[in-house]
Design goal:
Number of domains: 1
Order of helices and strands: HHHHHHHH
Largest sheet: none
Number of helices: 8
CATH class: Mainly Alpha
Structural class: mainly alpha
Radius of gyration: 15 Å
Helix content: 40-55%
Number of strands: 0
CATH topology: Serine Threonine Protein Phosphatase 5, Tetratricopeptide repeat
Distance between the termini: 52 Å
Strand content: under 5%
Length: about 130
């Protein structure tokens, strides 16, 4: 039987996830630099990177990647940060994730499937190495 998690740790984790969602790059980076894991996940399997990408914060995505966040992590629903960025049509975030090695065919639906489903030709072109 595992020990219960300290309520202070739970509160800190919640704050860190809120920073990723809100794009508070500098404050989030300070927590990461102080030892919060870059690949921390919440109860849905969302990483800080998935949340930052979904909420449209390329600067936060860049800071997370610089600190070792896994661009290929998949949440409990099969979603990746790249698929989230494609859904949000964030060219800058898609480019950052691709440069970091994110796979357009990982997860489900994949980033490529997301672009096709929502009829986002500019995102498809970007995933194929071209685009805006």
């Amino acid at each position: 039987m595992s020990e219960p998690i300290d309520p202070g740790v739970i509160e800190l984790a919640g704050r860190v996830f809120d920073l990723a969602r809100g794009g508070a790059t500098e404050e989030l980076a300070a927590y990461l630099d102080a030892g919060v894991p870059a690949n921390l996940t919440n109860d849905k399997g969302d990483t800080l990177l998935v949340l930052a990408a979904y909420h449209g914060h390329p600067e936060t995505v860049a800071a997370l990647l610089e600190r070792g966040a896994d661009p290929g992590a998949v949440n409990d629903r099969g979603q990746t940060a790249l698929a989230a960025a494609v859904f949000k049509q964030s060219v800058e975030t898609v480019r950052l994730l691709l440069a970091a090695g994110a796979d357009p065919d990982a997860g489900g639906p994949t980033a490529r499937q997301t672009a096709a489903f929502f009829d986002l030709p500019a995102m498809t072109a970007l995933l194929d190495g071209g685009g805006p």
